[in-house]
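ARCHIVE CARD
CATEGORY: sequence design from structure
SOURCE FIELD: tokenized fold
FIELD CONTENT:
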């Protein structure tokens, strides 16, 4: 794509005129932007410890805003240009039937309903986070067919089919077990975000109609409808919705039908006892496509909130903990190329899985109130997030790997694009990862702050931002100025509309040994609770500041690659950032000639020689290879080596062969 021609196309075809923008926003919004968002008036039996905020309550600033604007001008607003499937997503004219209710046919299949789900979710969130009138109007325009045409007889969001016709219900179910209903379940997140941002009653009505039939809850892989229904019920209180949710969680899971149903059952003792070197057919059914795994566990996690039965949560988290122990890559997300596997320098993670990981672990942080899950999110977001895309947010990889020395990969799974999945391209088939790119940034921005059930506010994730919300009817604004994670200091300026007493909860990262907190310049001795938060409970006035410093220290992690006979490797981190040797590049797929890639480290000695180099942040942030934060180390042979944050290096080595040859805390695998 040529930049000039695509930008002109974007200007002419996608962005509505000012008059259209005004008309769309006036017609769609039943609550003016800036007013108190719709209230979650109905409580779960076991409420979450913290409530997630709505789109637009947190706005990115500084380097994070630069990245969000790049995403807005790239894929998020221009997806219709990328492939013919995207204009078909939930539009007024594309009504697949029969075999085309499945995803496989690129021209006539229903894949675009899943792609629309991922894309629209990010599109809506980012539009309100940037307070961008053009993007808001565009998001509204894309959702308008569902807002207008949804009806109480629709099969989930499939408004052109009738749930009262047994033949049509059978038609949907036999097509990949209701693929399009599963896609509907994921589309609910975009519609829910739109409802929360605008208060448009049509959105809540459409959601309720989509979710109020108990039969839909068992369609699709993943099982995404139950989680969506729980979230929607908080607003509607619909009895019909409640009965459908009750029916799902009261039904015995059927492990042999879809892997998605298994995550509501305990992780069995036989899998816990298996050695990572054991390869048996008994493992086969436990393999799962990464993003579908994360989508599915969301419903089981919400099952505890809905029913009050903690076992649902315990079962789902046991699976997540198992993948974390055996499949996690150094950049924070599990191997999923396309299924679970051993971590290793050339094993891949699908971009869809990065987005799914961030949503799943943020949800865990909200439900449990535990900061360790937010630590996980930062690790994934700051490392795996930028590695998904090119610096202009117009090319992406389907799979990323810890080591990427050439523009392709060696992926053994026959599903997906294979080796070409490691190449930065405008699109990859299947188009799921292209669409999922839209989700990564806006999700992180929205969930940086939460509201604890016990009152007050909680800073859960860190980066520069502005929070504008209300507490007990009083407007509260908090500006966070920082270049974190590229520096250690953060300053939070608190501005309530009038003096207000409330607890401010500050997540203290587990990797930080000696955090420093000051209020209006006065050092605070605050105990960090078992949940990972420090609490400052006081009367806040405009002009109050909270200063945080999270001292960072280099850390080495050792691991073995069981894809390659247990060969030892190590990696280096600094705070939440993974570091890598950045290979000089002609472009994101092409290294400079004769670029050296065969670096080794000695994990037993590397920290003794590590030096931290800091320079001023660039005027505009785009994850430059010439990073303002670098680590100077010595290779195993004593040669000087300079490392940059993993996300800054499109061609890189981040898992180094380890001459020490020993693992003190080995990461194992599950393939």
């Amino acid at each position: 794509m040529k930049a000039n021609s695509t930008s002109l196309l974007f200007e002419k075809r996608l962005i509505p005129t000012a008059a259209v923008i005004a008309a769309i926003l006036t017609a769609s919004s039943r609550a003016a932007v800036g007013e108190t968002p719709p209230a979650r008036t109905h409580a779960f039996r076991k409420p979450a410890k913290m409530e997630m905020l709505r789109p637009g309550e947190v706005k990115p600033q500084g380097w994070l805003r630069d990245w969000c604007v790049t995403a807005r001008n790239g894929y998020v607003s221009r997806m219709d240009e990328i492939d013919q499937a995207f204009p078909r997503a939930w539009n007024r004219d594309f009504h697949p039937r029969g075999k085309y209710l499945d995803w496989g046919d690129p021209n006539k299949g229903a894949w675009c309903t899943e792609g629309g789900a991922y894309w629209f979710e990010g599109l809506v969130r980012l539009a309100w986070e940037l307070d961008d009138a053009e993007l808001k109007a565009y998001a509204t325009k894309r959702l308008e067919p569902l807002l207008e045409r949804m009806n109480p007889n629709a099969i989930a969001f499939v408004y052109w089919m009738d749930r009262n016709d047994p033949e049509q219900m059978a038609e949907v179910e036999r097509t990949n077990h209701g693929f399009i209903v599963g896609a509907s379940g994921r589309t609910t997140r975009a519609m829910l975000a739109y409802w929360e941002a605008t208060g448009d009653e049509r959105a809540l009505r459409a959601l309720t109609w989509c979710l109020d039939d108990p039969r839909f809850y068992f369609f699709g892989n993943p099982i995404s409808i139950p989680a969506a229904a729980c979230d929607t019920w908080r607003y509607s209180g619909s009895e019909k919705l409640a009965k459908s949710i009750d029916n799902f969680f009261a039904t015995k899971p059927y492990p042999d039908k879809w892997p998605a149903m298994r995550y509501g059952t305990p992780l069995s003792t036989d899998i816990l006892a298996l050695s990572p070197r054991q390869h048996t057919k008994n493992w086969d059914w436990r393999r799962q496509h990464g993003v579908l795994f994360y989508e599915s566990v969301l419903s089981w996690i919400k099952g505890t909130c809905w029913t009050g039965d903690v076992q649902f949560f315990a079962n789902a988290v046991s699976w997540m903990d198992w993948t974390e122990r055996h499949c996690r890559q150094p950049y924070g997300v599990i191997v999923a190329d396309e299924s679970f596997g051993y971590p290793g320098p050339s094993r891949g993670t699908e971009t869809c899985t990065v987005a799914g990981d961030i949503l799943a672990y943020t949800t865990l942080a909200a439900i449990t109130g535990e900061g360790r899950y937010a630590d996980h999110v930062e690790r994934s977001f700051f490392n795996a997030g930028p590695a998904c895309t090119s610096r202009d947010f117009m090319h992406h990889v389907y799979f990323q790997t810890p080591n990427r020395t050439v523009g392709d990969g060696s992926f053994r799974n026959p599903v997906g694009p294979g080796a070409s999945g490691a190449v930065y391209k405008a699109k990859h088939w299947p188009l799921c990862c292209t669409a999922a790119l839209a989700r990564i940034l806006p999700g992180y921005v929205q969930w940086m702050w939460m509201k604890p059930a016990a009152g007050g506010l909680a800073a859960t994730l860190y980066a520069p931002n502005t929070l504008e919300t209300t507490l007990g009817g009083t407007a509260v604004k908090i500006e966070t100025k920082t270049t974190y994670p590229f520096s250690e200091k953060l300053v939070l300026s608190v501005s309530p509309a009038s003096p207000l007493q409330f607890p401010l909860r500050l997540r203290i990262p587990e990797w930080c040994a000696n955090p420093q907190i000051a209020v209006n310049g006065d050092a605070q001795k605050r105990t960090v609770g078992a949940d990972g938060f420090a609490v400052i409970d006081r009367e806040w006035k405009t002009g109050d500041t909270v200063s945080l410093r999270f001292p960072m220290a280099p850390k080495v992690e050792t691991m073995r690659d069981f894809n390659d006979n247990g060969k030892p490797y190590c990696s280096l981190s600094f705070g939440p950032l993974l570091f890598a040797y950045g290979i000089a590049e002609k472009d994101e797929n092409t290294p400079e000639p004769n670029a050296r890639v065969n670096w080794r480290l000695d994990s037993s000695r590397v920290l003794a020689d590590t030096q931290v180099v800091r320079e001023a942040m660039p005027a505009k942030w785009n994850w430059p290879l010439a990073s303002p934060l670098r680590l100077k180390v010595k290779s195993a042979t004593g040669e000087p080596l300079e490392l940059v944050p993993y996300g800054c290096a499109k061609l890189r080595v981040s898992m180094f062969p380890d001459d020490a040859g020993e693992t003190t805390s080995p990461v194992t695998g599950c393939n």
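CARD ANNOTATION: The CA atoms of residues 325 and 667 lie 7 Å apart. The chain is about 35% helix and 15% strand.
SHELF: design records, drawer C
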